[in-house]
Amino acid sequence: MNFLEMKQAHKLLKEHKYALGKVEKGYTNRSLYINLSDNRIESKPVTEMMKEKFIGGKGFGLWYLWNAVNEKTKWNDPENEIIIAGGPICGITQYPGSGKSLVCTISPLTGMPMDSNVGGYFGPYLKFSGWDALELQGKAEKDVIIFIDGNEGIIKIEEAPLEPVDGHILSEVLTEMYADSEEDRKNISVVTSGTAAEHTRLGLLNFSFYDIRRQVARLKQAGRGGIGTVFRDKKIKALIIKYKGTKGDLNNPANKSLINKAGIKLHKEICKLDNAQNRMRKIGTANIIEVMDDYDLLPTHNYKFGSHPDTYKIASNVFIEKYITQGMPDGCWYGCSMSCAKAADSFELKTGPYKGQKVTVDGPEYENAAGLGSNCGIFDPQVILELNFYCDTYAIDTISFGTLTAFIMECYEAGILNKEITGGLALNFGNAEAALELLHQMSRGEGFGLIAGQGVRRMKRLFVEEYGAHPEFLNDIGMEQKGLEFSEYLPKESLAQQGGYGLTNKGPQHDEAWLIFMDMVNNQIPTFEDKAEALHYFPMFRTWFGLYGLCKLPWNDITPEGNGEANEPAKIPEHVQNYVDICNGVTGKNIDKEELIRESERVYNFQRIFNIRMGHGKRADDAIPYRAMGPVTVEEYESRQERYDKQLRESVGYDPEGKSTEEKIKALRQYRENQYEQLIDAVYKRRGWTLNGIPTIEYLQKIGMNLPEVIAVVKPYLG
């Protein structure tokens, strides 16, 4: 079937015309609301209160979601929303990493507000089309697409019965369908999900950008928390935006010279230093695969181990030499000289419905190589890329898939699962064929893939109730928290990183705090108070990127010469000042580095209170599985026996001589769990929260987040 026949089958449900408007100092001052239950399309004003307290991006998403739902709203209720917002800096082309948008919804995995950042062109094009945010509510009766023409000021909702659902095909089809010419393809951005999002809680959203060199619509993912599952539950097949005329001053900044100065400085640093530092332009985030292995931080066999003799088979140089296309710009937004969005071209698939086809695989990112690779005991780069591709096109979060598959594999090897239960899949560590089949089953909505697609938290409950598994063992090895699967770093030897995972708002994702090297390698934060300060500053600083529409990678994946001699080098102070300057340059504000943190504190505490409102967000929800802290099994302990015995002597004051491994595990566990509880106390105190994790009214007043509806949520918990 050709594109014309597909488009002719569309049925127009609603057409809405709007005045184009203009971006001023990073804001259009309005947002677009679409309700799919009644095909209502409206413009909402962005108020000064919203800009002051919520800034944009994630802040706008959380605020709209807060007002759309109540404490009883479930992820699949029509009232739940998906909000996409870019923030006031999103879309500038002078500073690297300025094309991010943030997506918020109530998560099918956690039951709480979820935010996920994503690249691609959709966020900037949405702003240039006249909207600071897109708010989607309700449910369509049949599959629909939403088309926004940002040059003509037209929005359409159309039934779309014939197009395929999987992301790589649908993005290509709709790019071709809505572009006026080959040249016009770069002006189209498409948001899709995929077939597996219809059958699991792990669905992601793919945001496209057209790569003019490769002549293909490439995909970036808003991966975490099942946002794509909500998308397909609402019967949205795709969002399409068209905007022609991108240029460097569309945000109409208050002072463009501030932005240009910061941008020129960073472009020069990247050009001069990147190849000697992290090689982001050469291999992207996959540059750290072997580094994590060297430091015993690479999750292996469901986080039991931190390294493996076969890691060299999936090291970054393997992907550089054999798979990743070189010599092409790989940024996912204009002007990003970091260019870390790598791709493997003409990759021939060996399995599944697209077997034999040659495709473009966006990756691997480090998280994909670690999660789909070492954590599952798979050290074959071709398998990692194939899993990577199918996760993307089926719309499955690669992090959740890697972590839950590793959990299943350990349960299989422990005898909790067998072939009868898994439908014939021998899910041992390293069984690539079984891992791929599990993924294909998720797409087809059949077999053990349906069970796996519920995530680790629900599998733990099922394995206890149906298969007689020991609940304590499953809670120890099931690497989820708040219902979200852990991202791919081994935090056992870094108490600060344990807090960086456990004390997050949305669950164990490293975008709030990545403190492993500061804590474990460099010993820069030795006391509880030091760790608490780091677990205050870095989550707040990283939150700020999501408010303004920025990628965090240009902040610390390139560092200025002489940064090691700077005051507080881990913060990259010269780059912090860059962000202060571009914020003031775009918005006309006069913030400093302290106010930058305060802006984030308001939104961060708001999200914590949103969690509380939804029945979560207290101390009990910040517990983490013991495997994130220390060794669960005898095999695990004995793999690092010398290290653990030394810790027992020197830190615990316990003599391991003559003790069984089980006795030593128990003694070490008691110590490490106590350390984590002390860390929680210190962090809560620094954040202005009670010992139960509730933000105090005094602190909310201090930071300016004392809205009446916010105070009403916390007041009953404060006595």
Automatic annotation (TrEMBL):
Belongs to the AOR/FOR family. The keyword Cell membrane does not apply. SUPFAM superfamilies: Aldehyde ferredoxin oxidoreductase, C-terminal domains (SSF48310), Aldehyde ferredoxin oxidoreductase, N-terminal domain (SSF56228). This is Aldehyde:ferredoxin oxidoreductase. Pfam families: AFOR_C, AFOR_N. It comes from the Bacteria. Its EC number is 1.2.7.5. Coiled coil: none annotated. It is an enzyme of class 1 (oxidoreductase). Transmembrane segments: none annotated. The keyword Nucleotidyltransferase does not apply. PANTHER family: ALDEHYDE FERREDOXIN OXIDOREDUCTASE, TUNGSTEN-CONTAINING GLYCERALDEHYDE-3-PHOSPHATE:FERREDOXIN OXIDOREDUCTASE. GO terms for molecular function: 4 iron, 4 sulfur cluster binding; aldehyde ferredoxin oxidoreductase activity; electron transfer activity; metal ion binding. Keywords: 4Fe-4S, Iron, Iron-sulfur, Metal-binding, Oxidoreductase. It comes from Anaerosolibacter carboniphilus. Residues 27-247 form the Aldehyde ferredoxin oxidoreductase N-terminal domain. Its cofactor is [4Fe-4S] cluster; tungstopterin.
